[in-house]
Amino acid sequence: SDSDDGSSYSYSGDASDGYMDDDLYEQIAVNALYSEIIDRFPDADAGSSKYSVNKIEHLGLNTHVYGQLYLYDKYGDLTSGYSSGSGNYSRSFEVAIDEDGDAISCVID
Q1: Residue 48's closest CA among 82, 85, 10, 77?
Q2: CA atoms in the 13 A half-sphere facing the CB of 74
Q3: b/e sequence 62-101, b meaning 16+ C-beta within 10 Å
């Protein structure tokens, strides 16, 4: 059958460079963002929040994913993530991923 079982990652680029497919880096970054949203923004809903990736950059053995994060609450409304309402609903982020595919830092500004 032609159904996608989720195990068919196509590798883009030169396999000898040691890097994974950009889609995989993006998924690792999203998982790190979800954890960070849950930890830092009590009034935001990680599953409802949206993101966009601006750039994926390979720096030495690590890969950095840069982008923009838009925090939403469980009702689908934009939120600062805090009950006080202070702060911005739109934030930039940077996730660093090591050579093993583990997120080693997640910074949301």
Answers
A1: 77
A2: 4
A3: ebbbebebbbbbeeeeebbbeeeeeeebebebbbbbeeee
Distances (CA, A) of 94 to 12, 76, 85: 22, 24, 23
**For the whole model, what pTM was predicted?**
0.80
Residue 5 has pLDDT above 60, yes or no: no
Backbone torsion region of residue 80, taken as left when φ is above 0, otherwise alpha when ψ lies between -120 and 50, otherwise beta: alpha
Coil, strand or helix at 18: coil
CB neighbour burial string for 32-56, b if at least 16 within 10 angstroms, e if fewer: bbeebbeeebeebbbebbebebeeb
CA angle 53, 98, 39 (to 5 degrees): 65
Assess whether pLDDT exceeds 70 at residue 58: yes
